[in-house]
Amino acid sequence: FGWMRARLDRHHPDLARAYNSLAIVAWERGDIDRALEFQQQAVAGWKTGHNDGLTANGLFNLAMILHSAGRDREALPPVQESRALRAKQFGETHELVGDSDHLLGEIQAALGDTQAARATLQQAVRLTMAGYGPEHSHTRRAEVSLARLRANEGAPDALLKLTAYGQSSSDDIEQRKAAWLARAYAAEVECKSGSATARASLDTVLTEMQLVLPEGGAIPREIAALRRQRGKRSGLARHRRLQRPDGALATHHFLELGTTHRDVALVAADLHLRAVLHRASLRIDAHVHRRLLAAVADRLDLLQFVGPGQQVLAALEQLAAEIGAQAVA
């Protein structure tokens, strides 16, 4: 790259291609500012060379980077320009136009234009299905985005579709990425309905991705962001729920309820429980205080904090069944 930059005109198409590659690498690493800088130089180079095909690809990538950073109003003009160039060069029914429609629909959804997003994503599914076929990852990603939009609107069949898309066992890494996204989006929708297992589902997806993609990337970063949003919402909800029953619990103080409550001791679920290990052993009563035992839904191993011989496993398992938590043993 240094050799080319020293010898070629700054708008040479080969230099633009190098800038485009560097932009994608920076984007995958999460360096958004550097990715945008490189991608803007790539687009400028291709525009100077009047290469509509490469310009359309560069504009698409620029919009993709901006969209991933939540800068959707800035992403809208380049994706629209990309689509127009592709439609002019290949025709309105080409699969590359479908790719542009897929990104455009996601941007419209992020901007709150749900009706336009639905129509655009439906068009994206039709064009990618016709051009790439039903087994292609671009087709599946468009289907996943449409199902996510409809599931967030409350369509029950869309949530079922997300769940089905998440069951893919393909060896193709792009298909696996689509499946991971589908599972994460399904958990996102279930989170809004108060599912206690949604956060655990996101954890599972992230763990699987880290094993396959230890270097990280844009999709693991997106799913990690969904996980953080889920944590913030559940933390706020838990704080509001606990503030009324007991101020000490809501402010993360250790709480002892006394003999009338069978010596139950509780802590807020978002408190790091290892900090209270030096205190008396915690005895858990899942029946009387199940509303406050959100810690179990967060998959904490509470048995570590219970004294020897205390019979809590059955109570915890019953609680887990009631709130749909993962195994607690």
Write the layout of secondary structure elements.
Layout: H1 2-7, H2 13-29, H3 32-48, H4 52-68, H5 72-90, H6 95-110, H7 114-132, H8 137-152, H9 156-165, H10 173-192, H11 198-212, H12 218-243, H13 247-250, E1 255-256, E2 265-266, H14 294-297, H15 313-323
Give a quick rundown of the structure.
By secondary structure, this protein is mostly helical.
The main sheet comes to: 2 strands, antiparallel
Radius of gyration (CA) equals 25 Å
Order of strands across the widest beta sheet? 1-2
Percentage of residues in helical conformation: 55-70%
Q: How confident overall, as mean pLDDT?
A: 75
The separation of the N and C termini measures 55 Å
Low-confidence stretches: 235-313, 323-329
Structural class by secondary-structure content: mainly alpha
H and E order: HHHHHHHHHHHHHEEHH
- As a percent range, the share of strand residues is under 5%
Shape: globular
Tally of contiguous helical segments: 15
Please provide the count of β strands.
2
Overview of the molecule:
- The chain has helices at 2-7, 13-29, 32-48, 52-68, 72-90, 95-110, 114-132, 137-152, 156-165, 173-192, 198-212, 218-243, 247-250, 294-297, 313-323, and strands at 255-256, 265-266.
- With 329 residues, it is an all-alpha fold.
- Helix 2 (13-29) runs antiparallel to helix 3, helix 4 (52-68) runs antiparallel to helix 5 (72-90) and helix 11 runs antiparallel to helix 12.
- The chain is globular, with a radius of gyration of 25 Å.
- The N and C termini lie far apart (55 Å).
- The model is unreliable at 235-313 and 323-329 (pLDDT under 50).
